[in-house]
Amino acid sequence: MARDTWAYRDVAVESFEDARSGALRIRPMAGQAFAPSLRVQCARALADPAIHPAGTRFLLSAKLTDRLGGTPFLYAYHGDPVVVLTAAQAKKFLAEFRRGRI
């Protein structure tokens, strides 16, 4: 079955170290339609410190969802290609978002 690509949108996310568990987690970057407190479900490789250190920025195609009426979260298909953003690319993406071009 094919994914409903109309529900997905580009979202800039970053990895961070969870203060409670010490594990790397993924969150939306500030300045977009999604709060940085929103959980992101994506490929495990993005939160693997052996591959990507804390603070790495990514561009994901994600959609807002809730599993059977639960807490909303962003879902990115694990099979999509990984796009790592530089600081300049992330800044440009967020600026374009604020201008309404994305």
Q: Can you describe this structure?
A:
The protein has 102 residues and is mainly beta. It has one domain (7-99): OB fold (Dihydrolipoamide Acetyltransferase, E2P) (Beta Barrel). It is built from one helix and six strands, in the order E-E-E-E-E-E-H. It has one helix spanning 87-98; strands at residues 9-17, 24-28, 40-41, 57-65, 73-76, 83-85. Strands 1, 2, 3, 4, 5 and 6 form a six-stranded mixed sheet that branches. The longest helix has 12 residues, at 87-98. It is globular and about 35 Å long.
Count of β-strands = 6
- Helix fraction? 10-25%
Major beta-sheet overview? 6 strands, mixed
Number of separate helices: 1
CATH architecture assignment: Beta Barrel
| CATH class category | Mainly Beta
Radius of gyration of CA atoms, rounded to a whole number: 13 Å
Distance between the termini: 27 Å
What string, H for helix and E for strand, traces the elements in order?
EEEEEEH
Q: What coarse outline follows from CA principal-axis ratios? A: globular
- Which structural category fits the helices and strands? mainly beta
Number of structural domains: 1
Q: What is the CATH fold-level name?
A: OB fold (Dihydrolipoamide Acetyltransferase, E2P)
Return residue spans where pLDDT drops below 50 for at least 5 consecutive residues.
none
Mean pLDDT score? 91
